[in-house]
Amino acid sequence: HYAAGSLYAFTFSEYLEGLICTALELATGAKPPPAGGLDSEYVLTSVRYLLEEHVLPNCCRGEVLDFRYTLANSATLSEAIDVIRPLIDPLYDKYADMPIRVVSGKPGMGFSLRNFLEMCQEASLVGAQLSHVQVKTVFVNSLQISTDADAARKPLLNRNEFQEAICRIAYRYDASKDP
Questions:
Q1: Contact 177, 128 (CB under 8 A)
Q2: What is the pTM of this model?
């Protein structure tokens, strides 16, 4: 995975270790470990409690594929994208600065999360309209990940994914919040 092992990412084993440590710290406050020390039953019960009581209730469904399906199958939206493409393409060209391999196998430029946030901030969308978390969610939800894709794919938007991200931003945009 891109950035695995870096300062800004976790490997899966590091994630599991963090999950177990957090579960044990949370559980220790509620119920101390058995007198004989930690056993697998106590650890599993602690992790189950963390997941069921703290993680899962705060999860929400992203509707990633439903949005993409609607976008791909709507003639009206396709026509609208065709109309605004002359505005979107120069925007992509302005901010896309990371090398990626496009579908044809030829090198191209990709759009990073940092640049996506910068673009949204320059457009005054962050704050009044969207939070940083919402912008990041739009970016991540626009990445088209498949099981047969290259495992080392960098999290960069290609041109089509960028168009999807713009549509996701427009979907979240609330004109009534404009000054």
A1: yes
A2: 0.65
User: Residue 47 in 3-state DSSP?
Assistant: helix
Tens of pLDDT, residue by residue over 112-167, are: 888 899 999 888 888 877 888 888 888 988 988 766 555 556 788 888 899 999 99
Angle at 178 between CA 172 and CA 179, to 5 degrees: 160
End-to-end CA distance of the chain: 42
CA trace torsion 80, 168, 11, 26 (10° rounding): -170
Per DSSP bridges, beta strands 107-110 and 98-101 are antiparallel
Contacts (Cβ under 8 Å, ≥6 apart) of 71: 77, 164, 167
In the chain, DSSP finds a helix count (H) and a strand count (E) of: 7, 2
Distances (CA, A) of 6 to 9, 14, 19, 63, 115: 6, 12, 19, 29, 20
Q: Give the C-alpha separation, 157 to 115, whole Å.
A: 10
